């Protein structure tokens, strides 16, 4: 589902973030992306949903040539990709229900179907009873669960999580991890950038380590491999 060949990224300020990335990720995989700060992990992730364009190289996602895609076609690419961030990025003045419903493609969806789907995903993340709350009334872990519900409400083929447990305590991090595994078990590809040695070394998955803009390791059931 994801194929990168000889991908380079140099930002306009001259910093080279990626220095020749070759990788293939199949539909249904769960992949951790690890590596030191500044290694290029976020850049790697941003290239997947056309938040950034590579300076050189080919990126094919779901048979779409991402760098060559016209701006008007980018929303179609993004419809197949849910994204979860470290800082949740919920809309603060909207309810939990509205935060999730907002992300639904309303085209051809009846209000009844939207309601059904929103409540279904809120149930999946265990927050059906908080639909009327606003984000500030929820704990960090609950807010991250809302962000996951919002990211998967459209049934994306791919879920990208950029440090999803970075702001959470260990117990809450494990809850988030459990939900991401459930999402993956339903067939969704999950790519998770993380600094959590505990999670990577406990819940064994494919590990792609990026160092200095290159893939330093790519291992099935790999280890975190760094001290922090
Ligand atoms: P990581 O996510 O592993 O910390 P990043 O992809 O964020 O790494 O960054 C890789 C390198 O690219 C770093 O040197 C960083 O400072 C630089 N960089 C990231 N984003 C930009 C940007 N928008 N403009 C210029 N340099 C950037
Ligand atoms: P390029 O301008 O080189 O084709 P992109 O299409 O990736 O590069 O655009 C870079 C950024 O500029 C995008 O992330 C987006 O924020 C903005 N952008 C580009 N085209 C449009 C557009 N038609 N409407 C709104 N924003 C745009």
UniProtKB/TrEMBL annotation:
Subunit structure: Homodimer. Forms a membrane-associated complex with FtsX.
Entry function: Part of the ABC transporter FtsEX involved in cellular division.
GO molecular function: ATP binding; ATP hydrolysis activity; transmembrane transporter activity
PROSITE patterns for this protein: ABC_TRANSPORTER_1, ABC_TRANSPORTER_2
Location(s), subcellular: Cell membrane
Domain ABC transporter: 2-228
Keywords: ATP-binding, Cell cycle, Cell division, Cell membrane, Membrane, Nucleotide-binding, Transport
UniProt keyword rRNA-binding, yes or no: no
SMART domains assigned to the protein according to its UniProt record, in alphabetical order: AAA
Main subcellular location of this protein, as a coarse class: membrane
Alphabetical list of Gene3D superfamilies matching this protein: P-loop containing nucleotide triphosphate hydrolases
Gene giving rise to this polypeptide: ftsE
InterPro entries: AAA+_ATPase, ABC_transporter-like_ATP-bd, ABC_transporter-like_CS, ABC_transpr_LolD-like, Cell_div_FtsE, P-loop_NTPase
Membrane topology value: Peripheral membrane protein
UniProt cross-references to NCBIfam families, sorted A to Z: FtsE
GO biological process: cell division
Keyword Cell membrane found: yes
GO cellular component: plasma membrane
Source species, domain of life: Bacteria
Name of the protein: Cell division ATP-binding protein FtsE
Species assigned in the record: Aquibacillus halophilus
């Amino acid at each position: 589902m994801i194929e990168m060949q000889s991908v380079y990224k140099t930002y306009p300020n001259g910093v080279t973030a990626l220095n020749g990335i070759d990788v293939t990720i199949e539909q249904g995989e769960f992949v951790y992306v690890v590596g030191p700060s500044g290694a290029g992990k976020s850049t790697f992730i941003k290239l997947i949903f056309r938040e950034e364009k590579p300076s050189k190289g080919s990126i094919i996602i779901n048979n779409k040539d991402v760098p060559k895609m016209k701006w008007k076609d980018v929303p179609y690419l993004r419809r197949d990709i849910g994204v979860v961030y470290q800082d949740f990025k919920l809309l603060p003045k909207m309810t939990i229900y509205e935060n999730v419903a907002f992300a639904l493609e309303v085209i051809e969806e009846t209000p009844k179907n939207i309601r059904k789907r929103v409540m279904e995903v809120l149930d999946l993340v265990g927050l059906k009873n908080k639909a009327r709350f606003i984000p500030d009334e929820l704990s960090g872990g609950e807010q991250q669960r809302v962000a996951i519900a919002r990211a998967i409400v459209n049934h994306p083929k791919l879920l990208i999580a950029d440090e999803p447990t970075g702001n959470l305590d260990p117990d809450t991090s494990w809850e988030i991890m459990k939900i991401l595994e459930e999402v993956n078990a339903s067939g969704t590809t999950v790519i998770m950038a993380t600094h959590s040695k505990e999670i990577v070394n406990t819940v064994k998955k494919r590990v792609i380590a990026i160092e200095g803009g290159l893939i330093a390791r790519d291992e099935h059931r790999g280890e975190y491999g760094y001290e922090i």
